[in-house]
Amino acid sequence: MSEYIASIKKWCEEVLKNYDESINTLRDNVSTEKLDEWKERFIQFKEELSVEESLQDQDAYNRGSELYEQLQSLLENDSESNHTADERAEHSWETVPIGGHTLPPLPYRYDALEPYIDEEIMRLHHDKHHQSYVDGLNKAELEIQKARSSNDFDLIKHWEREAAFHGAGHYLHTIFWYIMSPNGGGQPSGDLMREINRSFGSFDQFKKHFSEAAKNVEAVGWAILVWSPRSRRLEILQAEKHQNLSQWDVVPLLVLDVWEHAYYLQYKNERDKYVDNWWEVVNWPEVGRRYQQAKQLRWKAF
Ligand SMILES: [Fe+2]
What we know:
It is a single chain. This protein is mainly alpha-helical. Among the domains are: 1-94, no CATH class; 190-294, 3-Layer(bab) Sandwich (minor pseudopilin epsh fold), CATH 3.55.40.20. The protein contains twelve helices and three strands; from the N terminus they run H-H-H-H-H-H-H-H-H-E-E-E-H-H-H. It has a three-stranded antiparallel sheet. A hairpin with a 4-residue loop joins strand 1 (221-228) and strand 2 (233-240). The longest helix has 32 residues, at 119-150. The protein is globular, with a radius of gyration of 21 Å. Bound molecules: fe (ii) ion.
């Protein structure tokens, strides 16, 4: 079994674990028959992964995410048709349970972004660093829940920091994997391109601004393209570390990891080169989809 397939299999096990833990809540919302049917198909998929050479890496990812989406839409459709908004909020399984975050599978092989980002980096970055953010976030959420139920908030500052640090790490890395692609690079099109031109003057001016922001992050952190629902413009921010967001109330669209673990093995201290090469793996259609979703958020303009 390839290591990539093994990581998908591990993800399947996590999904099934969460599913089993939530099964009683699920049964309130969705017909038992549909759920059993889905679980059977998911287990069958997981077993296929163990059969040597039965699935190519990319097929395994596609099948897994398709099944996962089927479960989500099964739950969404059912809860929309049969329940009021309040009931949905109360029963909603689609929200990640407290302490129930999982590492998303990498949507392409570990070596898929070569030569721009090495396999070794991707393996370490996704399997070790991102996993530790997931674990840390789950722990922090459970500790904060414990604090709430025991009404003992003595360590809340510590755990809130942990939740911010690991939560930001988990959410930003999840975006990061998806806004890159082996078929990336080039320029965006359509609405996103028009908005980039409107907000920054031109794509070149935007790219220069974003690259300069990334190269000049103090120590570790991120460069982040955001849509501001308040100003109704795109903006570029630097996040030093990542728990210290310089703005709130924004939706990350394009994020670039400039923590050393993202490039050091391959580029050593040449972050600039890494930043310049990284543009070759940007998945613009995914960034465009994120923008389409995010722009539906509208607040009163001030
Ligand atoms: Fe990272």
